[in-house]
Amino acid sequence: MRKKSIFTRVAALVMAAAVGITAAGCGVKKKPGNAAGTQASITEEGQTDADQQKDTVNDNGMGRYVETTVYEGNGFSDMTQTQTLSDGQILFLNCLTRQKVVSKDSGSTWDIEENDAFSDFIDEHYSIASAIAKDGTIAVIGMDKRADSVDGYDAEYDYNLYIYNTDNTFKQITIELPDASSRLSTLTFDEQGVLYVYVTGGGNIYKVDIDTETSEKLMILNENTDLMQCRDNILMCMTGEKIFLYDLEKKTFIEDETLDYFIKENYKEMEWTGGGYTAYAFLGVDNTIYVAGDKGLYRHVIGGGVVEQVIDGGLSSLGDPSNSILSMTMNDKNEFLAAYSNGKIVKSAYDATVSTVPSDKITVYSLSEDDLVRQTIAAYQTQYSDMYVEYQVGMDESGVTREDALKKLNTQLLGGSGPDIIMLDGMNIDTYAEKGVLMDLSDIVNEVDGQDGLYRNLIEGLEINNIIYGVPAKFYIPVLYGNEEFVNDVRDYPSMADMVERARNEYLDTNLLQVCSAKGIIKRSIPVCAPSWKDDKGQLDQAKIREFLEQTKRIYDAQMKGTPQEEILSYQQHLIGEDGISYEDSDYFMIARDASYMMQMSPFAYGEIVDAYIYRDLLSLPRIQGLENTVIELMSGQNNNVYHPASIAGINTASKNTDAAKQFVSMMLGATVQESMQLGIPVNKKALPAQFAYDESSLGEDGGQYYAGFSTKDGKSINYTIYPVNQDGIDKLEQWIAELETPYLSDSVLEDVVYAEGAKYLEGMQDIDASVRAIADSVEIYLYE
Q1: Which of 281, 355, 704, 769 has the fewest CB atoms lying closer than 10 Å?
Q2: Cα separation, 515 vs 510, whole angstroms
């Protein structure tokens, strides 16, 4: 069976410092220019155009890299290799999609080179890694099913090295590996066509002569690498936390404290995610190395004491979360070419005539980092290159609390200043509307609605006195799914608790909910219950709080009294990740994806549909053996027809650039940005079907779009197929959307008190009366403010 993608989802707990630090001789700096940072073009001699024109840049603040999208095609589905051939052609090769995209003019224009023979070869030898030599020879690690293996997911494979020549002939080269646990993994060529192969299971790197078909062990790398490059006798190996540089002449590793320090402070997890790199490194001329990521593109002379910013991520596609970088290179004109997983190739060329930093500016503010804001900034600054968008995050990595961040923001807003655009997530929209600091956004909504169509019911749910002060750009949908015999009877929160208790009676000694803490169980129900906790005057409804705690305790008791003790201990021991963040506070916690249901250890599951991928997963569940009776319903609690609006944009009435602020919000709501949004269901009607678009030719023989698997710590596993969403699936989603009427707007102050006092009740530390009274007393003053 031909597969488009293979990845594993582990059913376990999933759990940057600012640039500009100089310490112990290690430096990171932006290019010459003003304080906001200037980018500079880099020459083959290692100088920069900005160095040569330093006085001009400093005096006039002119010159930076400007981007052009030079190619847009079908998305690249896996690792993409790049090479500048001996004749000057530049190519990007994606073996999995059989795409070879070639430029004969240094990257200005691109063409697809079709090769049926190579496609047939890849069909026969599924590629997990590849590399291209300067003469066009391609090395491939093929995943070949063993002749005596069974079919399907239990099939066994060999990992073989093939050399595919430019005349469409190929050969297999055997490398003697130390043991059965070792397998070929990563490849790269040097300029002379010598191949280097990384082998997992022992970390050996082999040097292979493809002409004589001989190999020798070069060295051992004790960390896994998904990215290698070789240039000027330096072999680069990028691992999760470090970039290793190996001198092929001296046969020793190069120590580079400056590079190590830069990576540690800015890219703590450099990895292949299955859809792109979180950071991508490549070698340049004159002993240089480049590192590209969301913060921009950086250049470092190997062994030197400085890392220089060449391109600011805030002014480029690198800072756009919808762009997952697959590969990057530099041409002979000192321009950079980046290939992204969405099928785009973007060229960055230095332009000395544009401002280093645009002269006009708007400011966007949010309490927490918002990827959609980042995406919109990248799109906005591409269209309006004379406008700089400053993004301020209130609770940044400096440890500022929500309370302190809001105090600072409120002081600015009430003083007639502050950011132009305010992302209102986690804030009290009513309060800001009453204070008169938010504009009416009806004209923006009407304009975009007229062009593309918007789900107006989701926007109108946030209206205050029929005025739109905040508009959600995306939303999530709480759903309950499972065996129809269990799910169909749930109509409110008490019947939800009834279902959980019934499931416990029939499913003994299983981890029903995959959540083993009082706070976690409370949190999973909050979206469908919290909207009822305040009356029409904004005051606490204690009867609703009491009902919530009583029913949640039934759910908690059913979960904790039947879950094996070792699983409870494991959950609690792994609750806090290495970054100090609780899994229950992460972006993953509320997602509607549950191993227990898929393993058929629970007859139901619930959570939020947060994007097209999760919806696609859920619609595929009934096609898994044993789950044919799966139904998916809007989740009911103390409220029905609930949706969770997010990326809620408002505009400051004191903005001095309201036209630009309106343009920004309009772009955020527009189809172009929303079609490629990574997290969230788009509020734009035109963008919704685009989120589910697929190429039929890329589907597997069984019609699958993706192939996935769950594995648990006790060795249980399931592999399954994820099918594309057809028009019936889109219609079903739109039918749900039309029914949504109750917005869940998080009130972290109230919710934190409910977590703390509610947990005491669930865990038997205090009675229901004490918990309700404690919650009411704690928020009384807050709710009256």
Answers
A1: 769
A2: 12
Give just the sign of the alpha carbon dihedral 203, 207, 208, 214: negative
What are 190's two structure tokens? 């040097």
Q: Are strands 252-253 and 243-247 parallel, antiparallel or unpaired?
A: antiparallel
CA 169 to chain CA centroid, Å, is 39
Is a pLDDT exceeding 70 seen at residue 777?
yes
Rounded CA separation 576/586 (Å): 10
List the beta bridge partners of residue 633. 480
Joined tokens for residue 111: 């063409």
The CA distance from 426 to 644, in Å, is 12
Average pLDDT (18-39) is 36
What is the DSSP-derived secondary structure letter of residue 149? P
Dist CA 350 CA 353 (whole Å): 9
Helices (H), 305-438: 371-383, 402-414, 429-434
Which of 615-653 are b and which e, b meaning 16 or more Cβ less than 10 Å from the residue's Cβ? bbbbbbbebeeebeebbbbbbbbbbebbbbbbbbbbbbb
Predicted TM-score of the model (pTM): 0.81
Alpha helices in 526-654 (DSSP H): 542-560, 565-573, 595-598, 612-620
* CA separation for the pair 388, 671 (Å, rounded): 22
Phi, psi angles (nearest 5°) of residue 483: -60, 130
* Helix (H) or strand (E) run with residue 749 in it: helix 748-762
Kindly give the residue spans of alpha helices, DSSP state H, lying in 102-166. Answer: 116-124
Check residue 189 and report its DSSP letter.
E
| Contact by Cβ (8 Å): 625, 598 | no
Tokens describing residue 742: 């109750």
- What 3-state class would DSSP assign to 488? coil
**How much is the average pLDDT of 481-508?**
97
Under 8 Å between Cβ of 177 and 185: no
Task: Report the relative pairing of strands 195-200 and 183-189 from DSSP bridges.
Answer: antiparallel
Beta strands at 387-393 and 360-366: parallel, antiparallel or unpaired = parallel
Residue 24 scores a pLDDT above 60: no
Residues paired with residue 297 on neighbouring β-strands, in sequence order: 292, 311
Q: How far lies 81's CA from each of 9, 613, 714, in Å?
A: 25, 26, 37
Q: Which of 207, 189, 208, 210 is nearest to 134 (CA)?
A: 189
Report whether 495 contacts 640 (CB < 8 A). no
Torsion, Cα 220 223 225 229, to 10 degrees, reads -50
* Whole-number CA gyration radius for the chain: 28
When the pLDDT of each residue in the chain is averaged and rounded to a whole number, the result is: 88
Element (H, E) at 524: helix 518-525
Look up residue 147 and give its amino acid: A
* Surface-to-core class of residue 539, CB atoms within 10 Å of its CB (0-12 exposed, 13-18 middle, 19+ buried): middle
Lowest mean per-residue pLDDT among 8-12, 674-678, 769-773: 8-12
